[in-house]
Amino acid sequence: MGSRCPASPHQRRSFVSRLIVAVIPVFRAPSSLVDRVNALTTQVDAIVLVDDGTHSLSRLGLESSFVHVIELDENRGIGYALNSGVERARSLGATHVLTLDQDSAPPAGYVESALDVLADAETAGVRVAAVVPDLVGDQRVLRRDGFAFDPIQAGQLIPIDVFADIGLFRDELFIDAVDSEFSIRGEDHGFRFVVAEGQRIEHALGELVPLTAFGRHITIAGKPRHVLYHAPFRTYYMVRNSTILVREFGSRRRGWMLFRTRKMAEMVVGCVVLSPDRGAQWRATIAGLTDGWRGVTGRITEDRLVRIQSGRRKR
C-alpha cells in the first residue's frame, strides 16, 4: 500500500519559502505505520523514514516521490537514525524538520499550529530551538521559566538552521537521553523549546503493567494502579546516559540536572522495586551507573546484555 500524494498548495496554508519534512526513525516497522504516514501527507511536504537496521520497510510499500526510505545496514541507534533523516531532509531543501517516532501521531493541523507558535515566539525575540507539543500521550510537558523542560523528540518542529548552531543529535548515546542532551546544548546556545499549548501528540511512553503484591493487583483510592515499565536493556541505557549527562553537565547545569535526575530516578526506582523482573532491573541499573561513570557509550555489548538478563557472563 503506497502513500497518498501530498496536498496541493491550495488545500493547506501557504508557507512562504517553507518546506516541512518529517523524519521518522523506524525499528521493526509495524503495519500501522502506513496509516500514520498517510495521515501526515496533509501536513508536511515530504517524509523520511529511516529503518535502523531491521530491513522491515520494504514489505509496507511506502517509498515514493513523497516518502523517502533510508535503510541502515545495522542497528545504529535513534541518534544516528535521526541524523541520517535530518541530512536527507536538508538535501531535499527542508526549512523545518518534524521529528517523530514510529508510534507517534500528530493531530490534524499540528504543523500549522506549531508554525504559528514559532512565528509568534520569534517575533517576541525568542531564539527557538523547536516547538513541542503540550501533551505527549497523557503526559504534559514539564516547564521551567515558561518554556518546555527536557521535551522528548517526538513532535518537535525544528527550523533546519538550528542544527547549524546546535549540531546534530549525539549518536553515540544510542538511545535514551539523546533528546535531553540536545536540549541542554540548545539552551547553552541561547535557544528555547516553546510549547504549542493545547496540542497533543499520540505516543507510547512505556508499557503500563499492573502493580501487584502477593499476586493481587493493588488498588489505591479505588483505582487499580500500574507501573510504567521498561525492559531491563532500556533501563540500562536510561541510567547510563543519564549518568553521562550528570558527569558532563552537572557542575554548570546543576539545577537542570537535579530536576531531571529526580524525575528519572522515580521512574527507575519504580521499575527496580515494582516490576516482575526486579533482579534484571537492578543489574541493569548497576551496569548503567558503572558504564555511565566510566564514559562508556554506543550499543550495549552482548556480554553486558546477557549478564543483565541472567546474572551470568556470556559463555
Instruction: Report the oligomer.
Output: single chain
CATH topology of the largest domain: Spore Coat Polysaccharide Biosynthesis Protein SpsA, Chain A
What is the CATH H-level superfamily of the largest domain?
Spore Coat Polysaccharide Biosynthesis Protein SpsA, Chain A
Strand content: 15-25%
The major pleated sheet works out as: 5 strands, mixed
Rounded radius of gyration (Å): 20 Å
Would you kindly provide a brief summary of this structure?
The chain has 315 residues and is α/β, with parallel strands linked by helices. It has helices spanning 33-40, 78-91, 110-123, 162-166, 178-188, 232-249, 254-274, 278-294, 302-310; strands at residues 20-26, 46-51, 67-71, 96-99, 128-136, 139-140, 143-144, 147-148, 156-159, 192-201, 207-210, 212-213, 216-217, 219-220, 223-224, 226-229.
How would you describe the overall organization of this protein?
With 315 residues, the chain is of the alpha/beta class. It has two domains: 9-201, Spore Coat Polysaccharide Biosynthesis Protein SpsA, Chain A (Alpha-Beta Complex); 207-310, no CATH class. Helices cover 37% and strands 21% of the residues. It has a five-stranded mixed sheet, sandwiched between helices. Strands 6-5-10 form a three-stranded mixed sheet. Helix 6 (232-249) packs antiparallel against helix 7 (254-274). Residues 1-15 have low confidence and may be disordered.
